[in-house]
Write a structure and sequence with these properties.
The structure is a single chain. The protein has 803 residues and is an alpha+beta fold. 54% of the residues lie in helices and 19% in strands. The strands form 3 sheets. A 6-stranded mixed beta barrel has the order 2-3-8-5-7-6. The protein has a 6-stranded mixed sheet with strand order 20-15-12-21-11-22. The longest helix is centred in the C-terminal third of the chain and has 44 residues. It starts with a helix and ends with a helix.
């Protein structure tokens, strides 16, 4: 066995460049596996742990007006209610010293920060809010740069200045990149300043009795809404959440499988490179295999020899890959956790990631190298010794002859030689091309996914024919809103919508919603022209529907509950319980954890039921804006006008169309950037593989290079021949990846759109990406070919012919 170890060491040491390429290729694949599996493991574990630590409420109801604290005793008496807690979120205007314009934000008042029960706010630094100072939320502090100092608020008593004394973390704050507002936290001592009645609340937090189930939570939530309705208290949003799993899980659950598959693909491609390298190595050493067998070596001994080489390469690659993979997994997880306002904590090693790296890093290369090793070890002594070890399979069939004729007729001698050399080893060509083509297909599919997302957003924006939507904390008079908005320069058409909480049941069972903040009714006037969603089946609201009990539901809810256009549902609007017909199913864009899911109905029908005439919850305004800056200026002027008239805008439902588009793009950026980074990593693996292929080609053609140099071929010509061979590899991979990507892009983009983003994407194949990929693959091919080509030029005639 000692002799075998000497042989292993000699093979690895004498071909250091090939050994290094093999190690790097395995390490790249193992690093992909460790990074992605580790990131997912740390991400989900930390999200769920942070969620449980916050003592999440099972039911959260955001009310439309203040409710007396005495109501809590009646809520506690409802069967199934285990505990309650309260808070009061409200929209406020604030500004920093030196600023002239007011900004819109959110102030949250909690009864007692030292005795929180559910959805706990954590103190990160400084002091809890008290009678002398307030606190700012962590995400708000990071995005706005406000971490200390004084903040001036517009209050019921006039402008008041309050100092920031601490920074807190709240588990349910929308990230600013996704459109979240600046959040401040205050104690009940400041409630009167902001017009909040003593001993009142606006958000009710409820936990139900164990064991938790979504069905029990829905039943209890229905009973609480009925109680509130009897007291004439409206509910804007009802949020149900699992106490064990973080509410942001749906955002990531869809991409986990995709990322894991792509990680395994990268390891498989790295193994393909091992197969390529081992096959060439065995080919070169067939004469040595013959000598060993002639001296009595058995097939199992020879197989063990080369398997030991692969095992050594794999172990070194794993050792090199583990530290960067674990670091990348941790920091990637921290970056995504930051979006959900979760503290990453100290560095943690993902044990499953280490296990996957060890398992994949050892098994994949050994399995990849086994076929050529067994094939070489099984050779007879005669076949092995008779082999030169550098033979080729070119020139013996019609395809090869066709390549020769084409090169001789249409190409210069150097280019014709490079083309012929490309097809000299067809098996190696296929293996190398498979990696580059896979990287190309991934790149083109992902760029088409981005193009499809942009097209979907553009079409959604086109369906929204308003510039700004104003939401009000309390319903306002239509005429008052019209007069105020008309005073702002640029205001054009105005349309008024009204919202209402509702309960929908099918055959006695409350409807389930897919990852939203509950269901609410949005009532549109019969002549509505500001917005029309994409109708998937049935039809949209028409003028003749005014006064009729008809609904348009989202496709997600319809699919989840088996509802089709034409079905009848039980709808409760306050005390009104009637049967309504579903006339249409719409596809919406913002199907995520941050959005209240609308059910559309005629405004005239809602007003007949509620007798709530000439009041509006939303105002949709149309004005010509060219960019985000103009839009922001117009919205700021509107906010200023309404503030001067004492009308409070709701920060959660007031939005500008172009800004909302940007927020939606920001929401998908982490996912797309992760996938693009993985595609680039696979492209790098392809480059390593191509470099290894050309390096092996140089080793196998040393005598050929010596002959070329002996007959007068200059170093520049030899360099160009190998460089051209590498560029031809890249060019062929580019050509083949285009049709494959085109066939795969549409179904994959639509599947990824549904699994990752929760939407049906409008497909667009990115034609510009074809040019970008050509530039990338040629650059990768040039870099990969440079060092092998340079090495070929440095070989002397003597050492070439003496090889």
């Amino acid at each position: 066995m000692n002799t075998l170890w000497y042989k292993v060491w000699a093979d690895l040491w004498l071909t250091k460049s090939r050994t290094a390429l093999a190690i790097v290729s395995i390490a790249a694949g193992v690093c992909c596996v460790g990074t992605l599996f580790g990131m997912i493991d740390l991400l989900l574990d930390k999200m769920d742990a942070a969620h449980r630590q916050s003592q999440p409420s099972h039911i959260s109801l955001i009310l439309r007006q203040d409710a007396e604290i005495s109501l809590l005793e009646q809520v506690k008496a409802i069967p199934g209610v285990a505990g309650v807690d309260t808070m009061t979120p409200l929209s406020v205007h604030f500004r920093q010293p030196g600023e002239t314009d007011w900004r819109l934000g959110t102030l949250v008042i909690r009864p007692d920060y030292e005795d929180q029960h559910f959805d706990k706010t954590a103190l990160q630094s400084g002091n809890w809010p008290n009678a002398e100072q307030i606190a700012i939320e962590n995400l708000s502090a990071l995005s706005s740069g406000i971490q200390s100092g004084n903040i001036e608020f517009e209050t019921a008593l006039g402008p008041q200045t309050l100092p920031i004394g601490g920074i807190v973390r709240h588990p349910f704050v929308k990230p600013p990149k996704f459109g979240g507002q600046v959040h401040f936290f205050a104690s009940v001592a400041h409630a009167a300043q902001f017009g909040i009645p003593a001993h009142s609340f606006r958000q009710l937090l409820v936990q139900i009795a164990e064991p938790y189930s979504s069905e029990s939570a829905r039943n209890v939530a229905g009973q609480i809404r009925s109680l509130l309705s009897e007291r004439h208290i409206g509910v804007n949003v009802t949020l149900l959440q699992d106490p064990q799993q973080h509410w942001g899980r749906p955002f990531l659950a869809g991409i986990n499988g995709v990322l894991q598959i792509m990680a395994l693909v990268s390891l498989t491609l790295a193994s393909v490179l091992i197969l390529n390298t081992v096959s060439a190595h065995i080919t070169q050493q067939t004469d040595q295999i013959g000598v060993m067998k002639a001296l009595g070596a058995k097939t199992i001994t020879i197989a063990k020899l080369y398997l030991l080489e692969i095992l050594f390469l794999s172990l070194v690659a794993i050792i090199l890959a583990i530290p960067p993979a674990l670091a990348a997994a941790y920091f990637s997880a921290c970056r995504l956790l930051g979006l959900f306002n979760i503290d990453c904590g100290a560095f943690v090693i993902s044990v499953p990631a280490v296990a996957y790296m060890l398992l994949g890093g050892l098994l994949a290369p050994l399995l990849a190298g086994l076929p050529p090793i067994l094939r070489g070890a099984a050779m007879t002594v005669r076949a092995a010794i008779a082999s030169y070890g550098v033979g080729a399979d070119f020139g013996y069939n019609r395809f090869d002859l066709l390549i020769e004729k084409f090169g001789a007729r249409f190409l210069p001698t150097l280019s014709a030689a490079a083309l012929g050399n490309l097809f000299r080893r067809k098996a190696r060509l296929v293996l190398t091309q498979s990696v580059l083509i896979c990287a190309g297909v991934m790149f083109l599919v992902l760029t088409s996914l981005i193009a499809s997302l942009n097209l979907t957003l553009d079409r959604e924006m086109a369906r929204s024919r308003y510039a700004v939507r104003l939401g009000f904390t309390q319903d306002q008079s239509e005429q008052t809103i019209r007069d105020i908005a008309a005073a702002v320069a640029g205001t054009g058409q105005i349309e008024f919508w009204q919202r209402s909480s509702l309960q929908i049941a099918k055959e006695g069972q409350a409807l389930q919603q897919k990852g939203s903040l509950g269901l609410q009714l949005l009532a549109l006037p019969k002549n509505s022209s500001m917005y029309q969603p994409l109708i998937e089946s049935g039809r949209w609201l028409q003028t003749g529907d005014a006064g009729q009990r008809v609904l348009v539901l989202s496709a997600d809810t319809a699919e989840l509950n088996g509802i089709r256009a034409g079905d009848m549902l039980d709808v409760a609007l306050g005390a009104d319980h009637e049967r309504w017909q579903v006339i249409g199913i719409y596809r919406w864009l913002a199907g995520n954890s941050y959005t209240v899911e609308p059910a559309y109905a005629p405004l005239e029908t809602l007003r007949q039921i509620t007798q709530n005439r000439e009041l509006a919850s939303f105002a949709l305004l149309n004005t010509p804006v060219a960019d985000l800056h103009q839009e922001a200026d117009y919205l700021r002027n509107l906010q200023q006008q309404f503030q001067e008239h004492g009308i409070q805008l709701d920060v959660y439902t007031t939005l500008a169309k172009l800004e909302q588009r940007q927020f939606t793009r920001n929401q998908f950026k982490p996912v797309l950037n992760t996938l693009l980074g993985l595609a680039c990593m696979i492209a790098a693996v392809g480059g390593i593989g191509l470099s290894g292929t050309l390096a092996i080609s140089v080793l196998q053609r040393i005598r050929e290079i010596g002959v070329l140099r002996a007959i007068g071929a200059p170093s520049q010509k030899v360099f160009r021949m190998f460089l051209l061979e590498g560029l031809l590899h890249g060019g062929i991979a580019w050509l083949l990846s285009i049709p494959l990507a085109y066939l795969a892009a549409e179904p994959l983009a639509k599947t990824l759109g549904r699994t990752m983003l929760g939407i049906q994407l409008d497909f667009r194949f990115d034609l510009w990406a074809i040019l970008y990929w050509l530039l990338i693959v040629l650059t990768v091919a040039w870099i990969a070919a440079f060092w092998p080509a340079r090495k070929a030029t440095r070989l002397s005639i003597r050492e070439c012919l003496g090889h």
